[in-house]
Design goal:
alpha/beta; Arc Repressor Mutant, subunit A; 2 domains; 6 strands; globular
Protein backbone atom coordinates (compact mmCIF):
# COMPACT_ATOMS: atom_id res chain seq x y z
CA UNK A 1 0.00 0.00 0.00
CA UNK A 2 1.00 3.59 -0.57
CA UNK A 3 2.44 5.14 2.61
CA UNK A 4 0.29 8.19 1.95
CA UNK A 5 -2.85 6.08 2.01
CA UNK A 6 -5.59 6.85 4.47
CA UNK A 7 -8.40 4.57 5.55
CA UNK A 8 -12.04 5.56 5.93
CA UNK A 9 -15.20 4.22 7.50
CA UNK A 10 -18.55 5.88 7.11
CA UNK A 11 -20.72 5.98 10.20
CA UNK A 12 -24.46 6.62 10.24
CA UNK A 13 -25.41 8.85 13.15
CA UNK A 14 -28.33 10.92 14.43
CA UNK A 15 -26.67 13.97 12.84
CA UNK A 16 -26.10 12.36 9.45
CA UNK A 17 -23.41 10.23 7.92
CA UNK A 18 -19.88 11.03 9.02
CA UNK A 19 -16.55 9.81 7.67
CA UNK A 20 -13.83 8.70 10.07
CA UNK A 21 -10.36 8.78 8.50
CA UNK A 22 -7.18 7.19 9.88
CA UNK A 23 -3.55 6.63 9.04
CA UNK A 24 -1.86 3.28 9.41
CA UNK A 25 -2.40 0.04 7.65
CA UNK A 26 -5.38 -2.21 7.35
CA UNK A 27 -3.64 -4.97 9.27
CA UNK A 28 -6.23 -5.49 11.96
CA UNK A 29 -3.84 -4.36 14.72
CA UNK A 30 -3.83 -1.28 16.93
CA UNK A 31 -0.15 -0.58 16.26
CA UNK A 32 0.58 2.25 13.90
CA UNK A 33 -2.29 4.46 13.02
CA UNK A 34 -4.34 7.30 14.35
CA UNK A 35 -7.50 9.21 13.59
CA UNK A 36 -6.75 12.22 11.37
CA UNK A 37 -10.25 13.34 10.47
CA UNK A 38 -13.95 13.18 11.15
CA UNK A 39 -15.83 14.82 8.33
CA UNK A 40 -19.46 15.50 7.62
CA UNK A 41 -20.68 13.73 4.53
CA UNK A 42 -23.31 16.25 3.47
CA UNK A 43 -23.31 15.07 -0.12
CA UNK A 44 -23.17 11.40 0.90
CA UNK A 45 -20.35 10.99 -1.62
CA UNK A 46 -17.88 8.30 -0.70
CA UNK A 47 -16.20 7.30 -3.93
CA UNK A 48 -12.59 8.28 -4.56
CA UNK A 49 -12.12 11.16 -6.95
CA UNK A 50 -15.50 12.77 -6.29
CA UNK A 51 -14.80 16.50 -6.27
CA UNK A 52 -17.77 17.04 -3.95
CA UNK A 53 -16.59 14.55 -1.38
CA UNK A 54 -15.41 16.27 1.83
CA UNK A 55 -12.85 13.53 2.54
CA UNK A 56 -11.14 13.94 -0.82
CA UNK A 57 -11.19 17.74 -0.44
CA UNK A 58 -9.66 17.57 3.05
CA UNK A 59 -7.02 15.00 2.14
CA UNK A 60 -6.26 16.01 -1.43
CA UNK A 61 -3.49 13.97 -3.01
CA UNK A 62 -3.86 11.06 -0.59
CA UNK A 63 -5.31 7.72 -1.54
CA UNK A 64 -8.48 7.03 0.46
CA UNK A 65 -9.21 3.35 1.01
CA UNK A 66 -12.62 2.30 2.29
CA UNK A 67 -12.23 -0.07 5.22
CA UNK A 68 -14.80 -2.59 6.37
CA UNK A 69 -15.31 -3.79 9.94
CA UNK A 70 -12.29 -5.84 11.00
CA UNK A 71 -9.94 -4.26 8.43
CA UNK A 72 -8.51 -1.50 10.64
CA UNK A 73 -8.63 -1.73 14.44
CA UNK A 74 -8.25 2.03 15.01
CA UNK A 75 -11.24 2.73 12.76
CA UNK A 76 -13.21 -0.10 14.39
CA UNK A 77 -12.48 1.40 17.81
CA UNK A 78 -13.45 4.89 16.62
CA UNK A 79 -16.75 3.64 15.20
CA UNK A 80 -17.57 1.81 18.45
CA UNK A 81 -16.75 4.87 20.55
CA UNK A 82 -18.78 7.20 18.30
CA UNK A 83 -21.75 4.82 18.43
CA UNK A 84 -21.45 4.74 22.25
CA UNK A 85 -21.28 8.55 22.33
CA UNK A 86 -24.44 8.87 20.24
CA UNK A 87 -26.17 6.21 22.38
CA UNK A 88 -25.36 8.25 25.49
CA UNK A 89 -23.09 5.64 27.08
CA UNK A 90 -19.71 7.35 26.41
CA UNK A 91 -18.61 10.78 27.60
CA UNK A 92 -14.85 10.50 26.92
CA UNK A 93 -12.98 9.27 23.88
CA UNK A 94 -9.85 7.16 24.09
CA UNK A 95 -8.41 7.17 20.58
CA UNK A 96 -4.99 7.87 19.10
CA UNK A 97 -5.25 11.22 17.29
CA UNK A 98 -3.00 12.96 14.76
CA UNK A 99 -4.69 16.20 13.74
CA UNK A 100 -2.56 18.08 11.23
CA UNK A 101 -2.16 21.77 11.97
CA UNK A 102 0.03 24.62 13.13
CA UNK A 103 1.48 24.81 16.64
CA UNK A 104 -1.23 27.33 17.61
CA UNK A 105 -3.99 25.10 16.21
CA UNK A 106 -2.55 22.11 18.06
CA UNK A 107 -2.59 24.14 21.29
CA UNK A 108 -6.21 25.19 20.69
CA UNK A 109 -7.32 21.65 19.91
CA UNK A 110 -5.52 20.23 22.96
CA UNK A 111 -7.35 22.77 25.13
CA UNK A 112 -10.69 21.71 23.59
CA UNK A 113 -10.13 18.20 24.92
CA UNK A 114 -10.11 19.58 28.48
CA UNK A 115 -13.66 20.99 28.28
CA UNK A 116 -15.86 18.63 30.29
CA UNK A 117 -18.64 16.72 28.59
CA UNK A 118 -21.88 18.70 28.65
CA UNK A 119 -20.22 22.02 29.47
CA UNK A 120 -19.44 25.04 27.32
CA UNK A 121 -16.92 27.86 27.39
CA UNK A 122 -16.55 30.98 25.26
CA UNK A 123 -13.87 31.65 22.68
CA UNK A 124 -12.53 34.36 25.01
CA UNK A 125 -12.32 31.87 27.89
CA UNK A 126 -10.49 29.42 25.66
CA UNK A 127 -8.06 32.14 24.54
CA UNK A 128 -7.46 33.19 28.16
CA UNK A 129 -6.86 29.57 29.14
CA UNK A 130 -4.29 29.41 26.33
CA UNK A 131 -2.53 32.51 27.69
CA UNK A 132 -3.96 35.52 25.83
CA UNK A 133 -7.63 36.50 26.13
CA UNK A 134 -7.17 38.93 23.21
CA UNK A 135 -6.78 36.01 20.79
CA UNK A 136 -10.44 34.93 20.83
CA UNK A 137 -10.76 35.40 17.04
CA UNK A 138 -7.60 33.41 16.39
CA UNK A 139 -8.93 30.67 18.67
CA UNK A 140 -12.22 30.69 16.77
CA UNK A 141 -10.33 30.34 13.51
CA UNK A 142 -8.25 27.46 14.88
CA UNK A 143 -11.36 25.73 16.20
CA UNK A 144 -12.95 26.15 12.76
CA UNK A 145 -10.07 24.16 11.28
CA UNK A 146 -10.41 21.31 13.80
CA UNK A 147 -10.20 18.16 11.66
CA UNK A 148 -11.57 15.82 14.36
CA UNK A 149 -14.86 17.30 15.62
CA UNK A 150 -16.90 15.51 18.29
CA UNK A 151 -13.80 13.70 19.61
CA UNK A 152 -12.01 17.06 19.82
CA UNK A 153 -15.14 18.90 21.03
CA UNK A 154 -15.08 22.29 19.32
CA UNK A 155 -18.90 22.24 19.57
CA UNK A 156 -18.47 23.07 23.28
CA UNK A 157 -17.19 26.57 22.50
CA UNK A 158 -19.79 29.31 22.12
CA UNK A 159 -19.91 33.06 21.59
CA UNK A 160 -19.47 35.50 24.48
CA UNK A 161 -23.23 36.20 24.50
CA UNK A 162 -24.05 32.50 24.78
CA UNK A 163 -24.99 32.35 21.11
CA UNK A 164 -23.95 29.37 19.04
CA UNK A 165 -21.46 30.41 16.39
CA UNK A 166 -19.47 28.66 13.68
CA UNK A 167 -19.39 24.90 13.27
CA UNK A 168 -18.37 22.88 10.21
CA UNK A 169 -21.38 20.59 10.57
CA UNK A 170 -23.76 23.55 10.85
CA UNK A 171 -25.29 25.30 13.83
CA UNK A 172 -28.15 22.79 13.96
CA UNK A 173 -25.67 19.97 14.47
CA UNK A 174 -23.79 21.99 17.11
CA UNK A 175 -27.06 22.58 18.97
CA UNK A 176 -27.94 18.89 18.70
CA UNK A 177 -24.56 17.80 20.11
CA UNK A 178 -24.81 20.21 23.06
CA UNK A 179 -28.39 19.13 23.83
CA UNK A 180 -27.42 15.46 23.49
CA UNK A 181 -24.65 15.94 26.05
CA UNK A 182 -26.93 17.79 28.47
CA UNK A 183 -29.59 15.09 28.14
CA UNK A 184 -26.99 12.33 28.60
CA UNK A 185 -25.80 13.92 31.85
CA UNK A 186 -29.39 14.34 33.11
CA UNK A 187 -30.03 10.61 32.53
CA UNK A 188 -27.02 9.55 34.61
Amino acid sequence: MNSSSLYRRTVPSPIGTINVVATGSATGTLTGGAIVGILWDAAAAVSDGDAHNPVERQFSGRTIIDATPGDHDILDLAVIQLEEYFAGSRIDFDLPLEPGGTAFQQQAWAMLRTIPFGETITYGQQAAEMGDARKARAVGSANGQNPIPIVVPCHRVIGSTGKLTGFAGGLGVKAWLLEHERFTLMRR
